[in-house]
Amino acid sequence: MRRRVDEAAGSEQTEKKPAKGKKAVEARARSSWKVWLKWTFLALCVLYVVTPFLLRLFPGIVQHLVYSHAILYFVDLSRPADLGLNHTVNMYLTSEEGVTLGVWHTVPENKWKEAQGKGLDWYEKSLGDGSPVFIYLHGNTNNRAAPHRIAVANILSSLGYHAVVMDYRGFGESTGEPTGSGLFIDALYLYHWVRERSKGSPLVIWGHSIGTVVTTNLAVKLQEQGNPADGVILEGAFTHTLQKRYAHPFAWYYWKFPYIQYYFLSLPKEKKAPVPNDENLKKMRTPLLMLHAEDDQVAPFKMAQELYSIAREALKSDKRIKLVSFERSLRYGHNGVYRDPALPGIVREFVQTLAA
Question: Which amino acids are annotated catalytic?
Fold first, then answer.
């Protein structure tokens, strides 16, 4: 009888051992989580304190945050046909000493067969064929190979228009470093280059995102020079350049805390910083089409409404300005307006009003 009792007791002890081992593993897991959380919190605190000083010591960081030109699509930009643009030529223009710009010129779709095998001279001469010409000024990330930019070029081509898409200095394979004044210089040079070759063809400037600021500055300057664009399209425009901050990764980090904002804003300003859209639209007299998604998280739709009111007051006419909104349910966001099936018709109608 005693042996049986001892055996039973031994059996109970062996059954209890695994339970104790399991508790030990759980305790170690909880401990490791606590250590991980502690170090993560400590790292965030250090980052919080160090960031303003890094911005002060290395102002180039701010430049990369604003323009985000280091974020690339790794494609061969010299071969647009590889991206489905098989009636497009790649070329390089020099906007000023030391700055070479990568540019794509896509001809109207009805010239697709004729364009095969043609060189730069043919494409350059084609700008004067009487078809409307669009200069597309993109936003602050990536390069001209971004999918939504290729899509816009294809839409314009399908409508029978020329599309000239440039990478500003520092973007894509364009040389130099981007600055607000530098982007404007590049756009102004491209406009005059195209205008000289397009002869009497309608010339429209289409700006998207930060490209809207370049576009409105360009339109005002051309107006002052007596050589205005025939029309302007603003897609995803915002009311003030500073409000573009919400588009950057970790924007919540840089702008949520007042003292970080103080250091960020106190960095050296550009001598010739671009004028914000709302100020430019008070002066612009060029026919204007605005495109804006209601669910745009980068440039909230209320900004488009405010800009529309400013431009309408300046133009003193409903015929020379139009705001087209895209419902929130479509989920186009900041870059997706090109997906709307009605967009080609909207653009065609706008071009037709320029000739009226």
Answer: 209, 296, 334
